[in-house]
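Long-time lurker, first post. I've been practising inverse folding by hand and with some scripts of my own, and I keep getting stuck on stretches where the structure tokens seem ambiguous. Below is the full token string for one chain I'm working on. Before anyone asks, I'm not after the true native sequence, just a reasonable design that respects the backbone. If someone could post their per-position residues I'd love to compare against what I wrote down in my notebook.
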């Protein structure tokens, strides 16, 4: 497996993990409203990327179901909508697919166990091995570095928006 793409995006990946919202998610105890906003944001992006990926990687229905279970009535972050609108070509769609699918499959497996009491249907797989195999078509690409970095940057903007919303609510 090629690590090129991972190495080229590692700094932004770590920035997402170090963000206060990323840290709250990693703790397994984010505020439910923040979690719902995150789920809705990821769902907005998946609405664009799911039709371009193998069915085993589709997450929209699961994300929608998880957001409904949260029941906080949170809105989709505007930055997620704006980013999703930029996903209009193969490279941008593939970059977002690499980042989100990798996150759901790899980090998501750990997160699913930590998020006790939170809806995690979007982190569960009918056939995880098949999904990992499908992820390889993105992982091995060297032409989507910029687009993958754009996705991570968008995730940071989404986290900033969620963090601001949480400060305004409290």
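-- Answer (accepted) --
I ran through it position by position. Result:
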């Amino acid at each position: 497996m090629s690590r090129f793409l991972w190495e080229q995006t590692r700094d932004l990946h770590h920035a997402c993990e170090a963000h206060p919202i990323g840290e709250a998610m990693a703790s397994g105890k984010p505020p439910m409203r923040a979690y719902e906003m995150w789920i809705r944001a990821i769902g907005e992006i998946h609405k664009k990327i799911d039709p371009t990926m193998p069915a085993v990687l589709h997450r929209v229905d699961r994300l929608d179901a998880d957001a409904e279970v949260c029941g906080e009535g949170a809105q989709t972050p505007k930055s997620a909508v704006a980013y999703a609108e930029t996903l209009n070509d193969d490279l941008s769609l593939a970059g977002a697919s690499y980042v989100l699918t990798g996150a759901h499959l790899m980090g998501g497996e750990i997160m699913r166990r930590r998020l006790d009491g939170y809806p995690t249907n979007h982190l569960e797989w009918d056939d995880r091995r098949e999904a990992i195999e499908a992820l390889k078509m993105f992982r091995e690409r060297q032409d989507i570095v910029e687009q993958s970095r754009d996705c991570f940057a968008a995730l940071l903007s989404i986290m900033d928006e969620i963090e601001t919303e949480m400060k305004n609510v409290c």
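A couple of notes from the structure itself: The chain has a mean pLDDT of 95. The longest helix spans residues 90-114. Happy to go over any region you disagree with.
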